[in-house]
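Sample entry (165 residues):
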Amino acid sequence: MLERAGESSRELLFRLLQYSLYEESGTDGNKMNENGLFDYPWFDAYFSEPGREAWLIRDIGGKLLGFAMVNEYVQKADRGHSIAEFMVLPGFRRKGVGRQAALLCFEKHKGNWEVSPAAGSTRAEQFWESVISRYTGGRFEFSDGIFSFFSGAGETDGHKGLSGR
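Predicted structure, serialized as tokens:
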């Protein structure tokens, strides 16, 4: 379901990211530049820096369903992982694709996690609250627009991940 986005899928990921930034621009104020693109200064780092990962979300047959970008930039903990960008294509939403992809991301890295839903998007906030609440058994915090929780096997730091259920 998650396929690492390498150099061969760089352009595809860029196009998906542009679509996502456009979609969010209605609520978060993203602005296009003079070339008709949304700036994303960290994009190249996902192909060159440790601690940054980009994933294509695909079904079992290989059909593209969306993408996820994960990094180690956290604001509420000393270290951990964060969902930087996440999008499921509209035709595949509300079918469990996003939930499953998010859980796969969380299971790739045990420890502290943070998710900041798209600013101003009630739908994004509701989606992430539902996914994280179910994943942690309700053991998460939400402050300053950031969901904070722990992903791990069994009880650890007061949080319980899927593998501990």
